[in-house]
Amino acid sequence: MYKGLIAAVLLIAATGAVPLVASDYYLAFLLQLYMMVALAQSWNLISGMTGYVSFGHAAFFGIGAYACALLLQAGFPWWMVVIQSAGIAVLVAVPVGFLTLRLRGPYFAIAMLGLNEVGRIAATLWISLTGGGSGISVPPTLQPELFTNYFAMLALAVIATTAVALVYKSRFGLELRAIREDEAAAEMVGVNTTRNKLGAFVMSAAIPGAVGAVFIMYTSYINPASAFAPALNIQMIVMVMFGGSGTIWGPVLGAGIVMGIRELVWANFPALHLALLGVLLLIVVLVLPGGVVSLFTRRKQVRPEVAAREQDNA
Description:
By secondary structure, the chain is mostly helical. The chain is about 80% helix and about 0% strand. Helix 8 (about 145-170) crosses helix 9 (about 170-180).
């Protein structure tokens, strides 16, 4: 893991130099890539680690985006607003997680889908606060520059990946994976499943809350349809499943591949990019249930056997 983190630090240092040479188009693409890495890792924390599949994680993204717009207009500095938006998402996640994590399987998934829909309807009807269907525009004077948003989103992607790595290697992560494999058995051996699930859920909500804040500072506009978009949930799921659910680097790999393919398809066939995500998910489930990252782990496991066989033949 440590070699991987060192490689990641070197890669981050290289990406830090990108704004000096890249055009605004490539900066915008990389900013969206970092956004999807962070969101995929947040989904991976709860769904990949514990097996509780969420179809409504975009709700916390929307909460963070609206919180950011309102807090910026209230006069708070942008860096404080990002932290506050993550905190507001956490405040919502605590009672929601306490109630919904009692459900299992498809019931939890449907409950989270309902949360996303409730958020969209509330943002549409609460006109005095959210502007309703017209949304909220952030004045340019309150927005940080593109470079600032770029590095802020890069930082969130790094923080999310580091958090997943630390959780994965900890006792907490081991207990989460035990819950994923067999929750009843985990309880029998003394794992506090309620506390662990809630902890993972709250962590996974803070990340999209912060991401939503940086996103609206970049776009300067948010409305209910873009804040609580079901397509955003689909993208998170596809990227994690494509790269490798419950792993450290799977969501990063999945986000990079899917975003690259999506950009190519969007440029040539804009009406087909969502259909492509569905096809990719179907292919992964049928052919690579462990994700692309399983190809590398499988290769590691086979190598010693191949070496031993070659030695015997010699």
